[in-house]
Structures are given as structure tokens and as C-alpha cells.
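Lab notebook, bench 4. Still working through the backlog of constructs that have no structural model yet. Next entry is a single chain of 166 residues. Request: give me the C-alpha cells for it.
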Amino acid sequence: MTKRLLSFSVLFVVACSGTQTPPGGSSGAAGDGGSAPQAGTTTAGETSSTAEATGSTSTTSSGGASATTGGGAEPTQPTLAQLVAKGDAAGGAKLYEENHCKGCHGTPDKPGKKFPNVFAADYTEKKIDDAFAIIKKGKSPMPGFGDKLDDKAIADLVAYFKSSKK
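Model written out:
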């Protein structure tokens, strides 16, 4: 409850014009004698925000300096190349069979003749991004598999392609 109240207080102070603490450091409360700003207030030339999900508070001064307290950094999404690097090639081989990819694309030893040889590609970060897009959305005449396969499953497929490159 206190955390939510503090978050609301900080957001309210930032959102309302004219509610920042005057340059003397007083919090604006009657009779506080110019004490240091309390939690949830800012001094002149500062803005403050609270990230409720992480519990962190960020303050930026008029000079551009910024400080963050509490909480942790937002987790970043791994790139598709990072997903592939952690992919399960054996699981990808199983998915390749289950989704009948072999019928058009063949096998590492005997690739399909009419359709792209997925085992011969040099899987750079761009090629990995392209492979994810094609597998998800399809590319005529190949249907998309975005409704059947999530990013981890597609990463496993591409890991299988990479591990079987001839």
C-alpha cells in the first residue's frame, strides 16, 4: 500500500504544474521550516518518475544528470539469433518431421530441388530474422506456421538447419 501511495504521490507531483518544491528546499508543507524534500517531492529543476513494476524511482535534474534507485533493470528480450544459439537442434529435427517440412525442403543429405535448401544457408543475424518471418507468415507456396510454432520452436528449427549445414 505504501509503495502504491508513494508511486501515486510522485506521479501526482510530476503531473501537476506548480507543485514542485521551491528552490529553498522546503517541501511546501506548512511549518516544515525548510526541511529537505521528503519522498515523493522534487526540488526545483528536477522531475521524478516511479516505475511501479520494478519499484524503481528515477530523478533527472535540470543539468541532465539522472539517477535511478531501487528495483532492477527491465529485462531485455533476447534477439532471434540468441534464441537460435540456445535452440535445441534435436527438438528442431523432430518439429521438421512433424510439420512435414521434409516433403518440400528435403533432408540435409538430399535437399528438395524445387524449394529453398534450408540446410545450405549461412545463418547470419539477418538470415535468421528472415527465416523467422518466413516460417511464421509463410511465403508462397509455403504456408505460415505462426499459429502452430512459437519463437522457441522456430529457434529450434533454425538451430537444426544450422547444425545440419552441408
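Notes after review: The domain at 80-163 is CATH 1.10.760.10 (Cytochrome Bc1 Complex; Chain D, domain 2). The CA atoms of residues 23 and 44 lie 5 Å apart. Flag for follow-up if needed.
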